[in-house]
Amino acid sequence: MRTKVIAGNWKMNKDLAETSSLINDLKAKIGTGLGGVEVVICPPFTSLALASELLKGSPIKLGAQNMYYEDEGAFTGEISPKMLKSAGCTYVILGHSERRQIFGETNELINTKAKKALAAGLLPIICVGETLDEREKNITDQVITAQIKNVLKEIPAADLEKIIIAYEPVWAIGTGRNATPQQAEDVHRHIRKLIGQLYNWTVAEKLVIQYGGSVKPDNAAELLKQPDIDGALVGGACLKADSFHLIIDAANVV
Ligand code: PGA
Q1: Please, how many CA atoms are within 13 Å of residue 229, restricted to the half-sphere of its CB?
Q2: Does the beta carbon of 235 lie inside 6 Å of ligand 1?
């Protein structure tokens, strides 16, 4: 049995005061027990150190939304894996579609970042997903295959258990239009089979594959019930303690 992982991607939301109130609300709702679910919150860089303080003694883990791949130096505006570790991060989201689309990140860059994150002891949540145009052209599987092969290039089998793959169809992100449980399950199954071919079946069976794209309290349970959906990467619905908590609960029930 794979552990379900529910991660909240805050994106560019919440200043310090708002960070405190969301984390305090969440802690009050969750208490000390998460059941068998792993819960991660990914606030913006400016809130990480504060979040880490507030999460002391809580089972909620901390993640970042991005990083650069060098340890230090003349890279104005960038944040290193080492800095994320010292700010208290366990996870880092890499290759989110907004990074790919708005900031031009390529599979090659994401692969370099993933290797550096692993070397620094961070657990990467690597995002893949097709656009609406690609889905309508019926090339979803090919697009996902190419993304997975390239982002995982030269990453050894032993490191796969430290990696989460998040399948996030671009057309479902922030649109209120989630993939149906069956559409999501089909792609998750495809990803698991591909990992089985690229590595081996033991690795594939252990891999946590999250779904992301308009996950809400009212659709989370159906999505999480699918055999190959092992969690969710949640955007909009993680910005309120109520809705994020309901999604965590849904993961506990299925
Ligand atoms: P959404 O975002 O839940 O607002 O669609 C998901 C994501 O971008 O990770």
Answers
A1: 30
A2: yes
